[in-house]
Design a protein that fits this description.
By secondary structure, this protein is an alpha/beta fold. Helix content is 47%, strand content 14%. It is globular and about 75 Å long.
Length: 504
């Protein structure tokens, strides 16, 4: 923790300079602010934090949500900057494209002011050990903020929303009350990588801010969705595998009833985890440990490590709603971004708990149905294909590009005969223009610990396929786009790159 605090001091000092740069350029150019942010939960949380901070400073702004910061989008942004003199803030992307931004946002040899808040590895950097990171830091400060400049891992220790939060705090210390939204973003990027799903690095420092304000309470709880009917939450858990019960909510319901737990609430609906008292939770804990120990001959302590986790309760939010814990909140934002209503998510994250929240809840139901449809189709039609070192699938006409990343993430955590967790998975979905595939790659954390870096795999595979090395991400999760007619070569080159990395 002392090391994180030392690194935070350096980041804070740099953000004070970024703040000065921001106001100096804003006054010089008399520009209006335009925020461009990513469509996932971390991107929407990032945009909401920047928006709320600027609103409090009475600085007008606009927010645009993008699928990715691709070359075509950068050219559109160039035109907007040229026409409207925007001062652009990029959140949750930009580091992987900083050279293009420097090139395209230069007019008459003068770079138009912009700021990047991104937690992905910078462009042309192979991995976090690459010393060129520090050259980029020196060349691009104060307008480029990235955790790798401070030897902080952007895939596990802080998200885009976390960086935006620290900038917001630099603008005004009262923005400390945006700390829960920063953790919503980190949760969306699955950054609870410590023991029992705890936060580490800068995220832990942000959690301390939220706890200090009494905005978040950390509790130990069963590792199941808190608001779904409990039998469904257990049956469809991606973390806890119960042979004979997983995938069958009716059998799970019978299992729970045999424990003597009344599974119907006052409204006649099946109880969720949040409806249970501590005694019932203890019964379920003991029963699941006995069940798995008998079925799989697994040590009880190993089961307990997965079964009991830290849950983060947002104390000022509506109880038993999606906003009441970090996971539910991040799922709500992600569903908005993945279904073309990202603006709803930003408005909710900025504080609207009425109309926008209600619409977002309705949208979440539609989103969940699309996820279930996609996963069911993959399993029933056995769509996972294998090479020696990778596995992959095509979304065909079933899985749209905006949810291909979500599906890839869910698959890699599954315990299924179709999936092999010793291989990364690559999902392909047709882009709207019909000539390109959106590619989303995911890997189990064990593979990453063995040296796999999907961001580097994709970059190398693109070069070997004679495609522009545009794409980005982290070791466990990365993405790009490729022409449909180059997919076979690209897959073979991904296979070769993974083999090379894992054989080191």
């Amino acid at each position: 923790m002392d090391e994180s605090i030392s690194k935070l001091k350096k980041l804070t000092n740099d953000l004070i300079k970024t703040k000065s740069f921001f106001f100096e350029k804003l006054n010089q150019t008399n520009s209006s602010i335009h925020i461009f942010t990513h469509l996932d939960a971390d991107g929407l949380a990032s945009g909401a934090i920047l928006g709320k901070a600027l609103y409090r400073e009475k600085i007008p702004f606009q927010i645009s949500i993008l699928k990715q910061l691709e070359r075509e989008e950068i050219l559109k942004i160039k035109e907007l900057v040229q026409e409207y003199n925007y001062f652009v803030l990029f959140s949750d992307f930009g580091s992987g494209q900083y050279l293009e931004l420097m090139d395209k946002l230069k007019f008459n040899d003068e770079l138009k002011p912009f700021i990047i808040f991104d937690h992905h590895i910078p462009q042309n950097v192979s991995d976090k050990e690459d010393n060129s990171i520090f050259n980029i830091y020196n060349e691009t400060k104060p307008w480029h903020i990235n955790p790798y400049f401070y030897n902080i891992d952007g895939s596990t220790e802080i998200s885009g929303a976390g960086l935006c939060y620290y900038f917001a705090k630099a603008l005004n210390e009262k923005n400390i009350n945006l700390s829960p939204i920063a953790l919503v973003g980190a949760t969306g990027d699955i950054q609870y990588q410590g023991s029992k799903k705890s936060f580490i690095g800068f995220n832990k420092l942000i959690l301390n801010d939220a706890i200090q304000l009494d905005h978040i309470e950390m509790v130990s709880d069963l590792n199941f969705s808190p608001n779904k009917p409990l039998n469904e939450a257990i049956a469809y858990s991606t973390d806890i595998n119960l042979p004979g019960l997983t995938g069958d909510p009716n059998k799970v319901l019978i299992f729970l009833q045999k424990l003597g737990i009344l599974m119907e609430n006052a409204n006649g609906n099946t109880k969720a985890l949040t409806d249970l008292n501590q005694s019932d939770k203890q019964k379920i804990t003991s029963a699941i440990i006995r069940y798995i120990s008998f079925k799989l001959n697994v040590d009880p302590n190993e089961i307990l490590d997965k079964l009991i986790i830290n849950r983060y309760i947002l104390k000022n939010e509506i109880k038993a709603s999606e906003l009441h814990d970090l996971n539910g909140f991040s799922n709500l934002l992600n569903s908005c971004g993945r279904t073309d209503v990202g603006g709803l998510g930003i408005v909710v994250a900025m504080g609207d708990r009425e109309k926008a929240f209600q619409k977002a809840q309705e949208n979440l139901i539609i989103y969940k149905k699309s996820i279930v449809k996609a996963l069911t189709w993959i399993h029933e039609k056995k769509k996972i294909r294998h090479k020696d070192y990778i596995q992959y699938f095509f979304g065909e006409d079933i899985i749209p590009e905006k949810i291909i990343g979500t599906i890839s993430s869910m698959l890699i955590f599954e315990k299924s005969d179709l999936l092999d967790t010793s291989k990364p998975i690559f999902g392909f979905a047709k882009r709207e223009d019909g000539n390109m595939y959106k590619v989303s790659a995911r890997a189990d954390k064990k593979l990453v610990s063995e040296g796999l870096n999907l961001s580097e795999v994709i970059r190398e595979a693109l070069e070997l396929t004679n495609l522009e090395p545009l794409g980005g991400g982290h070791p466990p999760a990365a993405g790009t786009k490729i022409p449909i007619d180059r997919v076979n070569d690209f897959l073979e080159n991904c296979n070769k790159s993974v083999e090379k990395q894992l054989s080191k």
